[in-house]
Structure formats: structure tokens, C-alpha cells
Design goal:
EC number: 4.2.1.47
Helix content: 40-55%
Largest sheet: 7 strands, parallel
Bound molecules: the ligand C[C@H]1O[C@H](OP(=O)(O)OP(=O)(O)OC[C@H]2O[C@@H](n3cnc4c(=O)[nH]c(N)nc43)[C@H](O)[C@@H]2O)[C@@H](O)[C@@H](O)C1=O
Protein name: GDP-mannose 4,6-dehydratase
Order of helices and strands: EHEHEHEHHEHEEHEEEHEEHEHH
Radius of gyration: 19 Å
Catalytic activity: GDP-alpha-D-mannose = GDP-4-dehydro-alpha-D-rhamnose + H2O
Family: Belongs to the NAD(P)-dependent epimerase/dehydratase family. GDP-mannose 4,6-dehydratase subfamily.
CATH superfamily of the largest domain: NAD(P)-binding Rossmann-like Domain
Number of helices: 11
Low-confidence stretches: none
CATH class of the largest domain: Alpha Beta
Shape: globular
Structural class: alpha/beta
Function: Catalyzes the conversion of GDP-D-mannose to GDP-4-dehydro-6-deoxy-D-mannose.
Distance between the termini: 30 Å
Length: about 325
């Protein structure tokens, strides 16, 4: 039985990946900083918590990382850990850098020291590209425009160097935005869906947003974890862009979400300048042709499916108490 270690298992991607790997017959080790106190609400929601081997691991601590790898001896490690909010990275640049880039370096070093044939997947980000008026592909030059993007770009180049220098099987998935009901509320899609559902139930009236003219390529997170796994099953480790290839403005997203609930967004959305970022990406466009061709992977869900699924889940969840997953 293959063994996989997922660092950052409690997040959206970690939880969906754990479910996917269990379905593939893996023995899955799920790591989070403090497995004793984490509620693992996403794992409970997917009903897989008891099928995982949950462990405490802080990848910013090299000794802890090396010890854990030597003990588990995983075949594959998926690094999905680290501070993932672009907005928060402006307030916490050090924590962001440490958790994203030092964490990644520790994993690379620990794999090298262990002398085991462990494969490593690193969660990269389309944020590294900056604005992409011409859809980004794997040869597009990075122009990071936030502390988060800089940390992700650093991790990308660390991995690239280790792959070349030590012949490691290591790859980075450069993922564009990907959403689901497991997205935390501080990301814009979940914030909009939650607010629109509450407004439709007369529990709230307004929604404050920042720049709604931005454009993004939004995909469906469960589709994307499949792509992570496919990258780890190839003859050669390579980096891939994972995206739908279709971009939409945030205004389009809001319009579809509110229309689905028979609401007029103009009556409820207010713009709050405080929610703007010091620097933000206006346009995110992707060309996922390499993943489509070499991994035989294509995004199955488009924007309408994503919104529909998130609304459906939100409406069902709003009738459940938060403790029903505990
Ligand atoms: C690929 C990348 O994808 C994600 O990063 P993100 O794109 O920053 O995601 P978000 O949902 O926070 O913002 C999307 C856009 O929406 C704008 N926006 C307007 N008004 C609000 C607002 O009220 N809240 C938020 N959060 N955003 C707003 C905001 O300014 C930005 O332009 C992470 O998974 C990250 O880890 C990652 O790697």
C-alpha cells in the first residue's frame, strides 16, 4: 500500500486530496501544526477524519520535519501547508514567508537527508505571475506583487534547484483560484455565497466588497487535487499550470450568485475601499494546455457549476448547527 503524507491536511485542498488518495487506496498521513487541538472540521464534513492517520507536524521546524519523514517513510509528500491569504500576507509578511518558503525548503532538505526515494508535490500559485493579460503558461515570467506571491515564487525556485541539483522527483502545481464549500469565509467567493444566501433568508441585508472589477480563472477544488496526484504519477517530474482556461470578472460572479437566488446584487453590494489591497492583480488568465495534453487533465466544472454547488451546500449547511460536524 502506498503511503502519502499531506502537510496542511485541514485546509480545503488538503481535505479533498485526503479523500481522493483514500479512494485511490493510499494509506494517508494527515499533518497539521497541532493535531491535538485542530477541529478538522473539513475532514469531518467529508466524513473521512477517522480513516486518516493524523499527526502534528510543523514544517518550519527542520528537526520535526526530518524526524517525521524518517518515521513515516512516505512514498509521496504533498505540501499544501502555509499561510494562504494574499490579503493577510501584507500584514504578516514574515509568517507568510516562513510558513510557505522555509517550510518548503525544510521538506526538500529532509527528503535529501533521508536518502529515501520520496516524491514531493509543492502547492504553487498563479499569484507568482502578477497580471496576466496574455494567458499565462509554464514559460511566463514571474512578477509577484504581494508578500504571499514572493514566498510562493521563492518556494518554486527552491524546488526547481533541488530537482536539478539532487535529481529529486519534485514538482510544483501552479494553481489558479479554486473554490468549493470548504473555502474559508475570508476568500471572496465564499464570502459572496454566504452573504447572498443570508440575504435571501432575510438574515442580512448588505455585503461589503473591495475591487469587483478584477478578473480571475476560478476552478473547482476537487478537480484540482486530482491534477496534483497526476503530476506525481508521471515518468518525469514537471511543473504544470492548473486552471480552467476561462476567466470572469468578480462582477460576473456576483451577478450569477445573486440571480440564482432571485436577488439583484446592486441593491445589496456596497464597495468598501478598506478592502482594497496595497497591490492587487487586476487580471488572471491561464493557458492550461500542457496539463490538458500531458496529464490528460481538464477542469470538469465551470463558473456556473461552482456557484450552483456552493449555494446548494450553503443553504443545506445553514440549517445545520456548526456543531453537527463535531
Ligand atoms: C491563486 C490564489 O488564489 C487565492 O488568492 P486571491 O486571488 O487573493 O483570492 P481572494 O478570494 O481572497 O481574492 C480574489 C480577488 O477578489 C478581490 N476582492 C474584492 N473584494 C474582496 C473581499 O471582500 N474579500 C476578498 N478576499 N477578496 C476580495 C481581491 O482583491 C482579489 O483580487 C488564494 O487561494 C491564494 O492562496 C492563491 O494562491
Amino acid at each position: 500500500m502506498k503511503k502519502a503524507l499531506i502537510c496542511g491536511v485541514s485546509g480545503q485542498d488538503g481535505s479533498y486530496l485526503a479523500k481522493f488518495l483514500l479512494e485511490q487506496g493510499y494509506r494517508v498521513y494527515g499533518a497539521s501544526r497541532d493535531a491535538q487541538t485542530s477541529s478538522f472540521i473539513n475532514l469531518r464534513k467529508l466524513d473521512i477524519k477517522d480513516e486518516l492517520n493524523l499527526i502534528s507536524l510543523n514544517i518550519t521546524d527542520f528537526g520535526n520535519t526530518l524526524e517525521c519523514i524518517n518515521k513515516i517513510k512516505p512514498d509521496e509528500i504533498y505540501n499544501l501547508a502555509g499561510q494562504s491569504s494574499v490579503r493577510l500576507s501584507f500584514e504578516q509578511p514574515h509568517e507568510t514567508h516562513e510558513s510557505v518558503s522555509t517550510g518548503n525548503l525544510n521538506l526538500l532538505e529532509a527528503i535529501r537527508f533521508s536518502n529515501l526515494p520520496i516524491k514531493l508535490y509543492n502547492a504553487g500559485s498563479s499569484e507568482c505571475f502578477g497580471d496576466t493579460i496574455i494567458p499565462a503558461d509554464e514559460s511566463t515570467i514571474f512578477h509577484p506583487r504581494s508578500p504571499y506571491a514572493i514566498a510562493k515564487a521563492t518556494a518554486f525556485w527552491q524546488l526547481d534547484n533541488y530537482r536539478e541539483a539532487y535529481n529529486l522527483y519534485a514538482c510544483t502545481g501552479i494553481l489558479f483560484n479554486h473554490e468549493s464549500p470548504l473555502r474559508p469565509d475570508h476568500f471572496v467567493t465564499k464570502k459572496i455565497i454566504t452573504a447572498a444566501c443570508r440575504i435571501s433568508q432575510n438574515k442580512s441585508r448588505n455585503l461589503s466588497l473591495g475591487n469587483i472589477n478584477i478578473e480571475r480563472d476560478w476552478g473547482w477544488a476537487p478537480d484540482y487535487v486530482e491534477a496534483m496526484w497526476l503530476m506525481m504519477q508521471q515518468d518525469q517530474p514537471k511543473d504544470y499550470i492548473i486552471a480552467t482556461g476561462q476567466s470572469h470578472t468578480l462582477k460576473e460572479f456576483i451577478t450569477i450568485a445573486f440571480n440564482t437566488l432571485n436577488l439583484h446584487w446592486e441593491e445589496h453590494v456596497e464597495i468598501d475601499e478598506v478592502l482594497r489591497r496595497p497591490t492587487d492583480l487586476q487580471i488572471g488568465r491561464a493557458n492550461p494546455a500542457k496539463a490538458n495534453e500531458e496529464l490528460n487533465w481538464k477542469a470538469k466544472f465551470g463558473l456556473n457549476d461552482i456557484i450552483e454547488n456552493m449555494i446548494e451546500d450553503e443553504l443545506v449547511s445553514s440549517f445545520k448547527s456548526p456543531t453537527s460536524y463535531l
